[in-house]
Fold this protein.
Amino acid sequence: MEAPPVSVLPITGGTINMMEYLLQGSVLDQALESLLHRLRGLCDNMEPETFADHELVYLLKGQQGNPFLLRARRSLSHPTVPWHLRYLGQPEVGDKSRHALVRNCVDVATSHSLPDFLNEMGFRMDHEFVAKGHIFRRGVLKVVVSKLSRILVPGNTENTEPLSLSYLVELSVLAPAGQDTMSEDMRSFAEQLKPLVHLEKIDPKRHM
Amino acid sequence: MQQREEKLLEASVESLISRVAHLKNALHSFIYKLENEYERLTWPSVLDNFALLSGQLNTINKLLRNEKTPSFRQQVIIPLLLSPDRDEELAKLTEQRVPVFSHEIVPDHLRTKPDPEVEEQEKQLSAEAARIGPEVAQKQIQTLNKLCSNLLEKLNNPRDDRDAESAAIRQNKPSFNTADTNALVAAVGFGKGLSKCRPPGPVAPGHPGQGPMMSGGPTLQQVTIGGGSGQQQGMGPGAPQQQGQAGKMPSNIKTNIKAASSMHPYNR
């Protein structure tokens, strides 16, 4: 079930299929500082980067009942930066021994008229949330530590309340389809964060 | 024959002098470091210095034990001339430490027996050892050996002991909550607990989104209902419509067979 190697993919039209490898975990608020220290040591040396994003999830209900989901994200700390639209496919059911969740991923940057455009296309906003936190990089690995907050009044990002007493920790890599070596690197990095946080492959469907 | 021995003696004395000079330099720099760079000194670098000194002592020992080295014990040093005058040559040789070859320095530098105090202590120790008798001594030796081997074992196998202790300590302070992880993943994955008709009140960790998921805005979980006539066909979703529920649909279908006017795709 592996996608063909990159050289065989069509050059004309279409883009290279990018897959996102993902491991998720969480850390309690009181342990956040120690996790940040450890990440600062393990990851590439750069200024600690914080972010504040507002994500809206749009649904298009199709006739067949499987809604099509798109995620639109904008930065609250840099309001003029373009919006980011992302499609995430179903997690690839492959090798059970693969250590990370793998899914198809398509990312584009869009203008600020994205919500209106999606509404006109027939998408409806299903839910939105605010994510604030830190982002670290180590080579191609990206670690995002974020606090998710619920928006109490739709559209008002000032009035939020945290979802839980923990921060969500996500380790992800974007790689072209067919490269399976990533999950080994991710697993060894995740080992280094134990026992502060257990990063593992969590199937979202299990928590429906 | 004697010439050869003399030459051998000279050669070994030369090499001994050079080794001792190395040792002296190492000691000198170590003392300097201890005295002047006191704040910046780390334990590993102190250990390095000690290791260097021990290595140099080892080489000196090896040199002395070497079969080519004549036994120095058989050599006798007799001072031929003692004078209270300053001797420039000697001062130069010893880097100004021994300027005068006189009666005061001879007992210290040409000593062959230990100091009188040391001799006293040694005599006391040997008297003590003779007093306790051979069996008690043997038992003491055995206990010492056992203690040493225990300690060595503990030091050489750190993993088992340390892991048990540290696991016990860390269990008291968990740094993550699995229920929280699941809640957050569900929230990011498909908006559990975040949809517009959210439950009232703050969410306690572990009980996300269990409020009424009623009408108002259909969430992901309810999209299967009212799928329309399209549901009757197989489950071949088009390429973009892979998102959504897992597995086979049929069990969740409420087949509202609406004739011509199936759900308008742009229904709001």
In short: Residues 182-193 of chain A form the longest helix (12 residues).
